[in-house]
């Protein structure tokens, strides 16, 4: 996912450079400019999607770690100490 983010980031930068050169130069190729602008929008959307995806994966991993740690805490809290003891009511 990180490699994909890097690739999309490079596309974004390339589109920005292309737009800058098309708007500042003598060449006014409107079709090429429109394509570069669309590439820029697409890459920005992909970057946001990937950021959200990375955040979700991190949160899921953190939650799984917390669940594992909570499971370890409850199993070591007293279950082993009370083995063989019976509670009478």
From TrEMBL:
Cited Gene3D superfamilies: HR1 repeat
Lineage top rank: taxon: Eukaryota
Checking InterPro entries in the record gives:
HR1_rho-bd, HR1_rpt_sf
- Disordered: annotated span: 65-89
Q: Name the keywords, alphabetized.
A: Coiled coil
> Which Pfam families does the record associate with it?
HR1
Question: What residue stretches are annotated with the REM-1 domain?
Answer: 1-63
Do you know which PROSITE patterns this protein is assigned to?
REM_1
Specify the protein name. REM-1 domain-containing protein
Which organism does this sequence originate in? Dryococelus australis
- Give the classification, highest ranks: Eukaryota, Metazoa, Ecdysozoa, Arthropoda, Hexapoda
């Amino acid at each position: 996912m990180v490699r994909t983010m890097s690739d999309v980031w490079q596309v974004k930068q390339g589109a920005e450079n292309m737009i800058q050169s098309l708007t500042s130069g003598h060449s006014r190729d409107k079709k090429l400019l429109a394509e570069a602008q669309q590439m820029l929008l697409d890459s920005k959307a992909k970057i946001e999607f990937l950021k959200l995806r990375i955040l979700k994966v991190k949160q899921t991993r953190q939650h799984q770690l917390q669940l594992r740690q909570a499971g370890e805490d409850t199993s070591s809290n007293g279950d082993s100490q009370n083995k063989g003891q019976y509670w009478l009511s």
